[in-house]
């Protein structure tokens, strides 16, 4: 008789304790799932379109990768149109681009552009592997205002 009372006394306590650990389990699972989703996110970044528009210190920039997506281990033409704040062609700029793969250390590719018409600059970039790449543009050696965009490379 005494035992029965004791066990029925214990039951509600154990019950709420196991409910608490269930809540803890679910909360922990949700937290782990959230972290996994956040960690996977950089890999699911989608590449920019063929043409991107940027603003730079003195005006605007239209950045085109002519054949898109870019081709691995081949020359891909990068065409940049630079304008000043008034919308006039920005002439005589020195443009240098670095290509590097996102989330990998498989090698960078650096190239410079030449002005083919007033404010029109052209150069050839070579992605080394298929996947997502980041292109960083330095205008007139100004490393404090680097302009970046992503691009997709395929075989
Ligand atoms: Cu790579």
What's the SSE blueprint?
Layout: H1 2-40, E1 51-56, E2 59-65, E3 70-71, E4 76-84, E5 95-101, E6 109-112, E7 114-117, E8 120-125, E9 131-139, E10 147-154
Parallel strand pairs: 3-10
Antiparallel strand pairs: 1-2, 2-4, 4-8, 5-6, 5-9, 7-8, 9-10
Bound molecules: copper (II) ion.
Copper (II) ion is lined by residues 101, 104, 106, 129, 131.
Characterise the protein shown here:
The chain is of the alpha+beta class and about 160 residues long. The chain folds into two domains: about 10-40; about 50-155, Immunoglobulin-like (Sandwich). It is about 25% helix and about 40% strand. It is built from one helix and ten strands; from the N terminus they run αββββββββββ. The protein has one helix at about 1-40; strands spanning about 50-55, 60-65, 70, 75-85, 95-100, 110, 115, 120-125, 130-140, 145-155. It has a five-stranded antiparallel β-sheet with strand order 1-2-4-8-7, with no helix packed on it. A five-stranded mixed β-sheet has the order 3-10-9-5-6, with no helix packed on it. Strand 7 and strand 8 (about 120-125) form a beta hairpin. The N and C termini lie far apart (about 80 Å). The mean pLDDT is about 90. Copper (II) ion binds near residues 101, 104, 106 and 129.
């Amino acid at each position: 008789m005494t035992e029965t009372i004791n066990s029925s006394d214990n039951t509600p306590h154990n019950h709420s304790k196991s409910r608490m650990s269930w809540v803890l389990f679910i909360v922990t699972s949700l937290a782990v799932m959230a972290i996994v989703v956040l960690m996977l996110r950089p890999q699911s970044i989608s590449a920019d379109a063929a043409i991107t528009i940027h603003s730079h210190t003195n005006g605007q920039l239209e950045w085109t990768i002519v054949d898109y997506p870019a081709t691995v281990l081949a020359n891909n033409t990068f065409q940049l149109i630079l304008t000043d704040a008034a919308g006039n062609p920005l002439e005589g700029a020195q443009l240098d681009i670095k290509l590097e793969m996102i989330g990998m250390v498989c090698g960078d590719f650096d190239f410079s552009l030449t002005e083919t018409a007033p404010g029109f600059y052209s150069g050839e970039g070579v992605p080394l592997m298929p996947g997502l790449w980041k292109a960083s543009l330095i205008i007139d050696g100004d490393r404090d205002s680097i302009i970046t965009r992503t691009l997709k490379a395929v075989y």
